[in-house]
Design a protein that fits this description.
The complex is a heterodimer of chains A (290) and B (159).
Chain A (H helix, E strand, L loop, with lengths): L4 E3 L4 H10 L4 E4 L5 H7 L6 E4 L9 E4 L2 E5 L4 H5 L2 H6 L1 H8 L4 H4 L4 H6 L7 H8 L2 E6 L2 E6 L4 E3 L2 E2 L6 E7 L6 E8 L10 E9 L5 E9 L6 E2 L1 H7 L6 H13 L11 H25 L2
Parallel strand pairs in A: 1-3, 2-3
Antiparallel strand pairs in A: 4-5, 5-10, 6-7, 6-10, 8-9, 11-12, 12-13, 13-14
Chain B lengths: L3 E7 L2 E7 L5 H8 L18 E4 L2 E4 L12 E3 L12 H8 L9 H14 L5 H7 L11 H17 L1
Parallel strand pairs in B: 1-5
Antiparallel strand pairs in B: 1-2, 3-4, 3-5
The chains are: A alpha+beta (290), B alpha+beta (159).
Chain lengths: 290, 159
């Protein structure tokens, strides 16, 4: 007989209770596209799976006064089909849609991509650049935390054993704002980022950047919010000197490893290139949304 | 821990089975329901051989727990044809010789049908990206892509 239990609670309170009371390893599941693979490979020996997909609010995309609320288990396919979200946050959507295949997109979620805590997770730099906030539920009620505070190391998050993410919130956008995500892989599809970069900008009527956030993935044990690269953008248009400063700031923020996907030197160089290119795309998109 | 009792609609018919928590939908389809048209290639969501349609979404049945199938509407390769009459995409795979060993074919057919259900006029690029999660080690893909595009053209002409 199997020792692995499964529960699909229909209230948040029940889900938290199951996690609090679990003996052994309890795993929160949304799409399961990482979790099932880890269990199959024997990397993870769970005792309880708590499936979040029956919880109210865990699916769907709503917009109110410009703020988008995204259910934690909303699939990549659903994100890619939401015209309003794509218009406001094209970088977040393109990053989420880079995860896996069409089949994986049918199930994979933002919360799963974040809490799997891979340094190379595609949606995470885009969410950090977007200033996304995770709405976390636990035994002490609800709290909110910036996405960049969730991952603390490869495979590790800042969530307590009996906490999980219920929703994400993307802030309201001023006029002339947009974002972009780029990743480098040695082919066009179905691979894991060698480097990923998300950029979000707001421009004034003259095309001068008034607010920016830049985040890198796969160049350190966690995603990196590169404040220096954002500061290089703010107060400037995308002239050659600004782009060079963004490139340098991105490279300086890297602390990568050498593995089969790329060397330390290669990753650092590509981080600068992607930061420049993603900034250019975000800038052009923001200008087009005047 | 007792087994889970799951009821679902599979290829238009009510179906029920018993499963352990760690069983995937793929395990249940093949081992409990004897629907062995759905293949296990990698078992880790990379190859697409186990593709099925769940509530209208294309998914890898190896990446979904069997117990999650409760109440779902599932279409497998066995439900693609209309009785003895092949689905147009099946017919076109034969005409274009879009298979050799055939192991990946059920997954490609289900994935292609899922594409054509939502996009009757895909570009070649759209077909190639949609099917990027289906691996074929025989054909080199070109005949598969041509078969899908030809299917789309014929279905539009007959619509």
């Amino acid at each position: 007989m199997s020792a692995l239990s499964y529960a699909a609670p229909s209230t948040v309170q029940d889900a938290i209770g199951l996690l609090s009371g679990a003996k052994g390893i309890a795993k929160v599941m949304s799409g399961g596209t990482d979790l099932l693979v880890q269990m199959k490979m024997g990397r993870l020996k769970a005792d309880l799976i708590v499936d979040t997909k029956k919880l109210p609010g865990i699916f769907g995309i709503t917009e109110s006064a410009g703020v988008f609320t995204i259910g934690a288990a909303t699939s990549g396919a659903q994100l890619g089909e939401h015209e309003g979200l794509k218009a406001a946050w094209p970088g977040v959507v393109e990053a989420a849609n880079l995860i896996g295949s069409t089949q994986v997109q049918g199930r994979a979620s933002l919360a799963g991509n974040l809490c799997n805590a891979s340094p190379a997770a595609d949606s995470v730099p885009a969410m950090i650049a977007a200033g996304a906030v995770a709405v976390i539920v636990g035994p002490n009620g609800q709290r909110e935390a910036p996405v960049e505070t969730i991952v603390v190391g490869p495979g590790r998050t800042s969530l307590a054993k009996d906490e999980f993410i219920l929703q994400f919130r993307l802030p309201a956008r001023p006029a002339r704002s947009s974002d972009a995500y780029l990743r480098f892989i040695p082919r066009t599809e179905m691979d894991i980022a060698v480097v990923g970069c998300g950029v979000s900008v707001t421009l004034d009527a003259q095309g001068v950047c008034t607010a920016a956030r830049v985040a890198l993935g796969a160049v350190a044990p966690t995603q990196v919010l590169v404040t220096a690269a954002a500061n290089a953008l703010i107060g400037h248009t995308l002239d050659t000197a600004t782009l060079a400063a963004v490139d340098a700031a991105a490279r300086a923020a890297c602390n990568p490893i050498t593995d089969k996907r790329g060397t330390i030197d290669f990753r650092i160089k590509i981080a600068g290139v992607l930061a420049r290119r993603a900034a250019k795309i975000a800038y052009d998109r923001a200008g087009a949304r005047a | 821990m007792s087994k889970h009792h799951v009821t679902a609609t599979i290829n238009g018919e009510p179906a029920e089975f018993l499963c352990e928590t760690e069983n995937t939908l793929l395990d249940a389809l093949r081992d409990q329901l004897r629907l062995t048209g759905t293949k296990e290639g990698c078992g880790s969501g990379d190859c697409g051989a186990c593709s099925v349609i769940v509530d209208g979404r294309l998914v890898c049945s190896c990446l979904m727990l069997a117990v999650e199938a409760e109440g779902k509407t599932i279409q497998t390769i066995e439900g693609i044809a209309d009785g003895e009459k092949l689905h147009p995409v099946q017919q076109k795979f034969l005409e274009h010789a879009a298979l050799q060993c055939g192991f990946c074919t059920p997954g490609f057919l289900v994935a292609a049908k899922a594409l054509l259900d939502r996009n009757p006029d895909p570009t070649e690029t759209e077909v190639r990206y949609w099917l990027a999660g289906n691996l074929c080690r025989c054909t080199g893909y070109d005949k598969i892509i041509r078969a899908v595009l030809d299917t789309a053209a014929e279905m539009r002409a007959n619509a």
